[in-house]
Request: fold
Amino acid sequence: MADPVFKRVLLKLSGEALAAGQGFGVDTNRVNEISTELAGVHALGVEVAIVVGGGNFFRGVAEQAKEMDRVSADHMGMLATVINALALQDALEKHHVHTRVQSAIEMNQVAEPFIRRRAIRHLEKGRVVIFAGGTGNPYFSTDTAASLRAMEIKAEAILKATKVDGVYDADPMLVKDAKKFTRISYMDVLRQGLKVMDSTAISLCKDNNLPIIVFNLNETGNIQKVVLGEKIGSLVSA
Reply:
């Protein structure tokens, strides 16, 4: 087998990815499938950090939150990410992968507080680190948290796992002849308003020249293919 092209990566998972087709909650079979893939990637010697969303439980900007104060709604969304992080940790440890959850919101009974040096040390010791609680601040998405944490731990790339196989000029689920980009610049993503990650996250990556690889999580083995350098999905870079 080829050697990995990345030593350290940050995987961005949506909460919906853990819910599979249910739309709400955590599908244990799906979480187990994702964990099996991650265990395989970890076995290659790649240092893996994960940022997980919370949209399968609560999304601060969704219809269900429109009557709520935005700050309260965002805090609820952050707590949802902790539930997902704990589910993922449990599944990974069943595959004998040592895992730590670090939360941007302190809750010492269930997770470590986010401490950058400690996170890097965990990675160096071969542990998977799951970052929960977003950035700890309202008005910032988990996409932005992924960009921020990736820079803090000096990841070589963000792997953005989605339900489509890359970046398109329109939603391929709705537009049949949407055009796929195999490679696109940060500026073009921002200029065209493409829904890769939110604009704050893209701008952070642009300013620090951190590549983003967007790929389909629903195809088994894709995470490993990305870290081995296979040309799948779309690359967002300078």
User: Anything to note?
Assistant: The chain has a mean pLDDT of 94. Residues 8-237 form a domain with the Carbamate kinase fold (CATH 3.40.1160.10). The longest helix spans residues 70-94.
